[in-house]
Amino acid sequence: MAKIYLSSTYRDLTEHREAVYKALRQMRHDVVSMEDYTAASKPPLDKCLGDVADCDLYVGIFAWRYGYKPPEQEKSITELEFRQAVDCGKQCLIFLLDEKAPWSPELMDPDRGAIEALRSEFQRDYMIDFFESPEDLATAISVAVANLAASGEVVLDDDADPATLRFYLRSLKRMTDELGSQIKLYSISSAGLVGVGTTVIVVGLSLEAMTFGVGGALMGSATIFPLNTMLHARRKKALLDTYHQELQQEPPAREAVSAIRRFLSTQLKGEAFA
User: Fold this and answer.
1) Is 272 exposed, middle or buried (0-12, 13-18, 19+ CB in 10 A)?
2) 173 neighbors 244 (Cβ within 8 angstroms)
3) SS3 state at 273
């Protein structure tokens, strides 16, 4: 379970915030948002920035409002929350309303200079995602958080939530499907090379020793290169099949979830399978 800070302007994105909040809570994350705030001794800005500093992950949602600027501040609370996340070295996920999405003029700043400058900065400096509806946004954020969890960039406990388990199962199925296709290709390649090599050897018996040698080389390549690669793919597929079976247990063992998380993390980081 991760502690996630949900940041955005409020009145223009109420439905979007609610959809995201529900989706992340269903994934058993601890979501901190302005809806949870009650009267407190700390000024709202201090409370917000303190919560950002305490979170594991910052999620920023931006449409066409820049947000409220507190007295004696040159930036809005929403932008200050983002700056705090960056200053604290937090992982940041940024989501922008698609420019083509229908949006009421009443939910836009009359002067959009500040929000457009901020959006431009996000598009220049960050990997961002766009959304058009509350449902689009909730799905995109759920997938992004699950990806971070699988990569190890956001730490979760070993009792994986249903959404994360579904993500693991989809990832494993995609990998095993790809390995199955590779195994078939290697099998066909090996069989083809053996067939060609045998033919060349038979012909070579009645021709020259060199031709016999070429046939032997072809058969050797059939057994050394495609075969070794095929065996490697089969070992990997067998492991992934085992992971897949363990994930489908009710409930899956913590050790299995941890092992799968570590495996997917190495794959997402581009590390070689051993």
Assistant:
1) exposed
2) yes
3) coil
**Considering the domain 3-151 in this protein, what is its CATH number?**
3.40.50.10140
- What are the distances in angstroms from CA 55 to CA 5, 59, 69? 6, 10, 23
Q: Domain limits of the chain?
A: 3-151, 162-268
Question: What is the greatest pairwise CA distance in the chain?
Answer: 98
pLDDT tens digits for range 212-240: 444 455 445 544 445 667 677 788 788 77
Other CB atoms within a 10 A radius of the CB of residue 95 amount to 23
Backbone phi, psi, residue 60, to 5°: -110, 130
d(CA 193, CA 1): 52
For the record, the structure tokens of 140 come out as 């995109």
Tokens of 135: 């449902």
Residues 49-87 have pLDDT tens digits of: 999 999 999 999 999 999 999 988 999 999 999 999 999
Taking the C-alpha atoms of residue 69 and residue 64, their distance in angstroms, rounded to an integer, is 15
Helix (H, G, I), strand (E, B) or coil at 60: strand
Phi then psi dihedrals of residue 30, to 5 deg: -90, 110
Token pair belonging to 23: 């989706």
Q: How far is CA 261 from CA 79, 149, 178, 273, in A?
A: 33, 8, 19, 14
- Type of residue at 268: L
C-alpha to C-alpha distance for 63 and 9, rounded to whole angstroms: 8
Structure token pair of residue 109 = 């700043």
Q: Where are the alpha helices (DSSP H) in 126-248?
A: 134-151, 162-205, 209-247
